[in-house]
Design goal:
246 residues, alpha+beta, Endonuclease I-creI, four-stranded antiparallel sheet, 26% helix, globular
């Protein structure tokens, strides 16, 4: 029986077995017998996935899909969902979170089950399916731009001379997967844990909740242009560039 272990590349010899990522098919159909098949080549659906991974979750019982969005992001995501979902889409305000937060909700039993199985249904268990290893740079950039729009920011260095790019998530697995994907762009991102376990946060209207540790994946300023070459450095202008990668 073969037992896999890590060795230095210089020690690999002819005849050794090497484990490599399995490249999945272009269509990821995980619901056998249902006829469901979501095409990642659909640009709008790929963008929606970026927002779902950043801001979405699925209901266990109702089979509903929720995205908690800032009001300025709402029309962008609404149009993306309309491009592949013909059913009703509703919204509701979440004043217990913030006066600026709006929850977007739509129902699809098949899509909810598919998202949960392949991307996770809550922030701590978010992940990417292995098909992302086979994506082109164009597809990865589209997905990562939408994810960055939901869960990313630009961060000034101590000298205020350059901005690094940060992805933030409660899922360490997700950011380690994105860290791996960034090598496709020649980018080596650094991953850090933000210790928050045991702390209590309070919503503006009095409700409180226990918080989890967060993780930051940071791309240095001299490398971020490899990923988003058109990204303006001014933080206050960043979300005017939403259609960067149509």
């Amino acid at each position: 029986r073969l037992i896999p272990r890590w060795i230095h590349a210089e020690n690999v010899k002819i005849g050794d077995f090497v484990k490599v990522p399995k490249l999945a098919q272009r269509d990821l159909d995980t619901e056998a017998g249902t006829g469901i098949s979501y095409r990642f080549s659909d640009s709008n659906f790929l963008k929606f996935l970026g927002w779902y991974v950043a801001e979405g979750w699925c209901s266990e019982k109702k089979r509903e899909i929720y995205l908690e969005l800032n009001q300025t992001d709402l029309p962008i995501v609404y149009q993306l969902i309309q491009s592949f979902h013909s059913g009703a889409i509703r919204t509701r305000r979440r004043p217990e979170l913030s006066d600026e937060v709006v929850e977007l909700i739509f129902s699809s039993k098949k899509l909810s089950r598919w998202l949960k199985k392949n991307f996770g249904h809550l922030a701590p268990n978010k992940r990417l399916p292995e098909i992302f290893l086979n994506f082109s740079l164009i597809e990865l950039r589209k997905f990562l731009w939408e994810y960055f729009s939901g869960d990313g920011c630009l961060h000034k260095n101590n000298q205020n001379t350059e901005f690094s790019l940060r992805f933030t998530s409660a899922s360490e697995v997700l950011l380690r997967q994105i860290q791996l994907l960034l090598f496709n762009f020649g980018i080596a991102g650094s991953l850090d844990r933000i210790k928050r376990e045991g702390k209590i946060n309070k919503f503006p209207h009095g409700r409180s909740y226990a918080v989890r540790d967060l993780f930051n994946l940071e791309i240095a300023g001299n490398q971020r242009k490899k990923l988003f070459p058109n990204l303006n450095q001014r933080i206050d202008k960043i979300f005017q560039f939403q259609p960067l990668y149509p």
